[in-house]
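Hello,

Our lab assistant flagged a job as stuck in the queue for most of the afternoon. It eventually completed. Since we weren't sure the result was trustworthy after the delay, we are filing this so someone can double-check. Below is the sequence as submitted and the structure that was eventually returned. Let us know if re-running is recommended.
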Amino acid sequence: MPLILTRANVMSVLTMKDCMTVVEKAFLELVNGTAELPLRTAIKPPDGISLYMPAYLRESGALACKIVTVYKNNPSKYNIPTTIGTVLLQDPDNGKVICIMDGGYLTAVRTGAVSGIATQYLARKSPSMTAGIFGAGVQAKMQLWAMAEARPLVKAMVYDIYPESALKFSTEMEAKLGIQVEVSSNPEALLACDILCLATSSASPLFDGKLVKPGTHINGIGSHTPNAREMDTALVKRSKFVGDSRQACFAEAGDIIIPVSEGAITDQHYYADLGEIIKGIKAARVGAEEITIFKSNGLAIQDVATAKLVYEKALAAGIGQTIEI
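-- returned structure --
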């Protein structure tokens, strides 16, 4: 009988720190060859798109598929969200579905977690650091939470094209993290921070990359199509570029695809996959002045590792409902 976990159930057991631990292990499995990660499959019914993201982590004993649907007319026609995510977790020994859980909050946390891991390996080490967040949505909150786990933040700054969203972000995250979160009306003011996170829906660069100070680490989260980017060519050219997956970056990330197509850099400018950094195959930061970029596209191994974690914690807490199929 599968265990059914609602969004509230998932939220009650999933912490950023624990998620970062299992996602880091998943990236190690990917580089070690013990992870199976098929390409994401898309089906396009008339009014939307349905995406299927399966993965298997042999060492972790985690097998699952996340289903994400995007139907733009959902709110007006059915009063449900545009984007819906659901995860089916299986027993890898017999294939049986053992848990069906909401995937929305899980996706948000695991996306923050991978940036937190990248920040651990690529950002400078200092007893007190600052973070600048472009965007004030759900994912921006997860990014700041993860960066606070990775580095001792004393202050954060947030910029959003909607000032009321930035103010709400500031109030919520100050209470959650216990640090000052300053709202800025000038996006360039954030470039004084040690760590930057770009979590917007912008299709064009957010700032002049020439203005980014040496030693900055940047997590690029927002753009996910070949013709959209949050970082300009000047910034990418100045930086050490690390991605979650080379294949995913050159299929989806305009941040690197566009500079290559312009001839400003070659595909060799892509330095490493995050798993190679974690394992030590390639060096992470090599100097205090180096600018580092981590580009996140989102991989199913993150979902599968996190789903297994949520399931185990839910069982231990005795939450959720079982059903007979």
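-- support follow-up --
The delay was a queue issue, not a problem with the job. The result is valid. Residues 108 and 139 are 6 Å apart (CA to CA). The mean pLDDT is 96.
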